[in-house]
Amino acid sequence: MTVLVRPTALCIDPSNPTAGATLVTPFLTGPSADPKEMVPPGGKPLFDPATVKAALAPQFGPISIVQGCLPTGRFAMNLIYPTGQAWTVPNETGSCATAEGTIDRTVSPPICSVRPPGASPRDVLSSQGTRAVLEITSSPQSSTCAQFPVPAVCGGK
Questions:
Q1: Are residues 108 and 145 part of one domain?
Q2: Distance (Å) of CA 12 to CA 20, 43, 48, 104, 135
Q3: What percent of the chain shows pLDDT beyond 90?
């Protein structure tokens, strides 16, 4: 399965988590993946804000959506289903659990070497670091951050 996840940050004030959250994304509109589709000059909406707000509100309270640069740093990735089930990567086991051995980088994609014998190897996503941490860095080639800086609620100035 191939999945495309839009780069987005959900910022919450840790001193007041019930106050709601701010969803920050660098782009609200964009071109179509279909070259035959006629798209307005500014692009077409990449998501439906009302649907996103409704989906996040049960877990986070009131949601505001802001176009802005993502805060830089190293982050965990969180997936939360509408049922409330949540997954976080990295999890407590790190990149390879003790039972999985160590990362074997002699194969592509890298896998956790298998110990004990008979267990299935698990792919390791090297692009996210050895512990599957997502790292957001600044981009001097992008004018997005100058035009839409990181919001204050996400640690911006």
A1: no
A2: 7, 29, 21, 37, 19
A3: 27
